[in-house]
């Protein structure tokens, strides 16, 4: 258990029941599941473990609330979101500590995530006021075209453990703005942050039944009947491509609208004309944010051969200087990975690269002792057949490969079935635009290692997903377009 002076209080105050139809209640039969501290492996508390029947009750509540909720004026929906934004800032310290306890990231990172998560409430409180349509004369002058936007209807959100608040608010924010009701199934490892968000939205005045939260240890069993229920109108998921594929196929039965934020394999491309120190600074952000447990994480570094050695040495120095520890402890830079499975996968990928000829300049293995720690690692001499160039690492490991010219860099960057984000470092404007046009990803960090922004369209191409979250595009995902042909 963390020695942070507020840890016990924050855990004792945290809601641990299901939130359904505006009431807090136990799961069917009183079932509970443990929440573990990944830094120590200890049980922090127990949370209600929703059954299939609890999931159905949550959808019943969302369906029952939909008719009234869509009639609530945009200004009221906007004000609820704005109050939620303010409350999130007021509660930031406690929400961040709760997140660190259940997820492991450092307190500074958790505070950063709470601030980022709150921005989705602020952004969509504005967007709620800008839902429009249009009226025009038909081309032949004989009739009129009236176009209106309406809420899609009840949604199911399946959210991940790596950003337990922000991946929720960027679905919940636009759904509230558009007038949709929802059921949220948070990740089994991190239910506390989502339940705390439900309490916050209740305090912000969100009417009963608009948001329902059902943590469960039986995700697939709970989700499947909801996805095949004809009353559900939309499914939004953030997580692996493998699970996303299954969900898309289940959703096809009812021709559900889907938004999928799936896996990534982000290339971080450094040309010899880049500002190398700035590139190293941004590499630390792109690689080490969230201990590398992010779909946006720089998965592989492609560095021009003339500067690769210098880049690797500078990156290794920065990685060596990081302090591993409990996320709630003063001075911790890097927390643990989420669980033994995740750490096992990272270990396997690093061992594979080393067996095929890579060298660990720093790190390379697990940190022994309690918790799921993995050392910050830089690998050089990574061969083209190493699995970690193709698979998402989701850990603090930076493999460095080299390229000779621009064409080779683009080919290497695009050599993946994923297409979420690329990072590109160059001081040559023409090259920056040329390469940006050639990169097959939904987002590009140009001379910066972070693309996240509530006001921008986040999302991928290829097998990284469908749809966009954030920006104006994020609201459109929750609106249907209806056209009325008007005979004068
Ligand atoms: O795993 C994906 C998380 C994306 C976090 C972000 O929005 O930056």
Strand order of the largest sheet: 14-15-16-13-12-18-19
Radius of gyration: 23 Å
Q: What is the CATH top level name of the largest domain?
A: Alpha Beta
Number of strands: 22
Class computed from helices, strands and strand pairing: alpha/beta
CATH architecture of the largest domain: 3-Layer(aba) Sandwich
What descriptors fit this protein?
Aldehyde Dehydrogenase, Chain A, domain 2; alpha/beta; succinate-semialdehyde dehydrogenase (NAD+) activity; 488 residues; binds ligand LJUCG4UG; Succinate-semialdehyde dehydrogenase / glutarate-semialdehyde dehydrogenase; oxidoreductase; Aldehyde_DH_Superfamily
Describe the structure concisely.
The protein has helices at 7-13, 52-70, 74-90, 92-103, 107-127, 166-178, 191-203, 219-227, 241-252, 276-288, 308-320, 340-355, 406-413, 429-438, 471-476; strands at 18-20, 23-25, 32-36, 43-48, 134-137, 143-151, 155-158, 182-185, 211-213, 234-238, 257-261, 266-270, 298-304, 359-362, 377-380, 397-403, 418-419, 421-425, 443-446, 461-462, 465-466, 479-487.
Q: Explain this structure to me?
A:
- With 488 residues, the chain is α/β, with parallel strands linked by helices.
- It folds into 2 domains: 278 residues, Aldehyde Dehydrogenase, Chain A, domain 1, CATH 3.40.605.10; 187 residues, Aldehyde Dehydrogenase, Chain A, domain 2 (3-Layer(aba) Sandwich).
- It contains 15 helices and 22 strands.
- β12, α10 and β13 form a beta-alpha-beta unit.
- α3 runs antiparallel to α5.
- The radius of gyration is 23 Å and the shape is globular.
- It binds the ligand O=CCCCC(=O)O.
């Amino acid at each position: 258990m963390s020695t942070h002076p507020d840890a016990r209080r924050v855990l004792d105050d945290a809601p641990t029941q299901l939130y359904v139809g505006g009431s807090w209640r136990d799961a069917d039969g009183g079932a509970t599941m443990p929440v573990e501290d990944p830094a120590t492996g200890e049980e922090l508390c127990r949370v209600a473990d929703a059954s299939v029947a609890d999931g159905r009750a949550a959808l019943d509540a969302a369906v029952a609330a939909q008719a009234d909720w869509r009639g609530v004026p945009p200004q009221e929906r906007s004000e609820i979101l704005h109050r939620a934004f303010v409350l999130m800032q007021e509660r930031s310290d406690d929400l961040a500590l709760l997140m660190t306890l259940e997820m492991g990231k450092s307190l500074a990172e958790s505070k950063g995530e709470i601030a980022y998560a709150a921005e989705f409430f602020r952004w969509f409180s504005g967007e709620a006021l800008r839902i429009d349509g249009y009226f025009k004369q038909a081309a032949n002058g004989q009739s009129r075209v009236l176009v209106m936007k309406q809420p899609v209807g009840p949604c199911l959100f399946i959210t991940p453990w790596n950003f337990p608040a922000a991946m929720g608010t960027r679905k919940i924010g636009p759904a509230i703005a558009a007038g949709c009701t929802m059921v949220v199934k948070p990740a089994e490892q991190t239910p506390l942050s989502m339940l705390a968000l439900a309490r916050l939205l209740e305090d912000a005045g969100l009417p009963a039944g608009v948001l329902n939260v059902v943590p469960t240890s039986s995700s697939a069993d709970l989700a499947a009947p909801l996805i095949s229920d004809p009353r559900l109108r939309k499914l939004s998921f953030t997580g692996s491509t493998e699970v996303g594929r299954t969900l898309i196929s289940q959703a096809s039965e009812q021709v559900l609208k889907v938004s999928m934020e799936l896996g990534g394999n982000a290339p971080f491309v450094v040309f010899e004309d880049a500002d190398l120190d700035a590139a190293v600074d941004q590499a630390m952000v792109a690689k080490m944010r969230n201990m590398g447990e992010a779909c946006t994480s720089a998965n592989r570094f492609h560095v021009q051969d003339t500067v690769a050695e210098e880049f690797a040495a500078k990156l290794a120095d920065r990685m060596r200087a990081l302090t591993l520890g409990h996320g709630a402890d003063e001075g911790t830079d890097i927390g643990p990975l989420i669980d033994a499975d995740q750490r096992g996968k990272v270990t396997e990928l690093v061992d594979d690269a080393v067996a095929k000829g890579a060298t660990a300049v720093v790190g390379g293995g697990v940190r022994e002792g309690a918790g799921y720690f993995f050392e910050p690692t830089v690998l050089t001499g990574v061969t083209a057949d190493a699995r970690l160039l193709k698979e998402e690492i989701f850990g603090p490991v930076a493999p460095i490969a080299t390229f000779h010219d621009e064409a080779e860099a683009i080919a290497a960057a695009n050599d993946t079935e994923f297409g979420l984000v690329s990072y590109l470092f160059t001081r040559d404007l023409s090259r920056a635009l040329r390469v940006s046009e050639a990169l097959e990803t939904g987002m590009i960090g140009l001379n910066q290692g972070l693309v996240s922004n509530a006001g921008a369209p986040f999302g991928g191409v290829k097998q990284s997903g469908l749809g966009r979250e954030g920006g104006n595009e994020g609201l459109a995902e929750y609106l249907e377009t209806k056209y009325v042909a008007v005979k004068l």
